[in-house]
Specification:
Helices cover 41% and strands 24% of the residues. With 251 residues, the protein is an alpha/beta fold. The chain folds into 2 domains: 4-168, Spore Coat Polysaccharide Biosynthesis Protein SpsA, Chain A (Alpha-Beta Complex), CATH 3.90.550; 172-250, no CATH class. The strands form 3 sheets. It has a 7-stranded mixed beta sheet, with helices on both faces. A 4-stranded mixed beta sheet has the order 5-13-7-8. Strands 10-11 form a two-stranded antiparallel ribbon.
Length: 251
């Protein structure tokens, strides 16, 4: 039989870990790959008979590659699931079916993102494909992409139809905290590439980003919720260039 291991990366995920593990019970094995949580995440995972491996966090690509190495030789496929994500029975059935197909090294899975408790399909949050079902030995993560990881496959990639449920950004402070980290990272990348901000970037880039989110990616379909998200993402586009300016000023 084809063997599947579900891998859940965690750090202080006691709020989510039990429900997440329950949703991946269809897998042959569950591995919680923990970054030395200071809450009771590990105890809760062990109570569900999940294997727990702890590793000091360096970056997301490094953590996922280390998790892949930990199961190499023990499983045929891995399914990466974040603690705030849930696999539905329908998705579990489709995953089992796709694993039987030869020639594929990985599969992208669409996500239903719940932002501030609302299913969000516009402004770029759907279908939001994530390459999470990976054939072991035929896949790894690009070490140069430490955030917004990129999977490198030796073989063909397919796409599933059934969405993964993602409880993303449960409140405004959660959203702000993550976006601040993301734009700081993106600004650092631009700085390393030698890109200097120009005056027009502070005006045109946020406007273009708003138009892209709200019009091109159909954020308007989500009404006021889509408008708010498009405005917020345009604001953080401005913040990215402001941080980039500060990086050059410090240098």
């Amino acid at each position: 039989m084809i063997h599947l291991t579900a891998i859940i990366l965690t750090y202080n995920e006691s709020e989510h870990i039990q429900a997440c593990i329950e949703s991946v019970q269809f897998a042959d094995h569950v591995l919680v790959f923990d970054s030395y949580s200071s809450d009771n995440t590990v105890a809760l995972a062990e109570a569900y008979d999940a294997e727990v491996i702890q590793r000091e966090f360096d970056n997301y690509a490094g953590q996922r590659n280390a998790a892949l190495s930990a199961v190499e030789g023990r499983t045929d496929w891995v399914l990466f699931v974040d603690a705030d994500e849930r696999v539905t029975p329908e998705l579990a059935d489709e995953i089992r079916q796709k694993m039987e197909l030869s020639g594929y090294a990985g599969w992208g899975i669409p996500r239903h993102n719940f932002i501030f408790g609302k299913l969000t399909k516009g402004a770029g949050w759907y279908p939001d494909y994530q390459t999470r079902l990976l054939r072991v030995g035929k896949s790894h993560y690009d070490p140069e992409r430490q955030v917004h990881e990129v999977v490198v496959l030796v073989g063909e990639e397919g796409q599933l139809e059934t969405p993964l449920i993602h409880y993303n950004y449960h409140d405004f402070s959660h959203f702000v905290g993550k976006q601040q980290r993301y734009v700081a990272y993106d600004a650092q990348i631009l700085h390393e590439q030698g890109i200097r901000p120009k005056f027009r970037n502070f005006i045109l880039q946020p406007l273009r980003h708003f138009y892209w989110r709200f019009v091109t990616l159909k954020g308007y379909q989500d009404g006021l919720h889509g408008l708010r998200l498009s405005v917020l993402m345009a604001w953080y586009e401005l913040r990215k260039y402001w941080i980039l300016r500060q990086l050059w000023s410090d240098k």
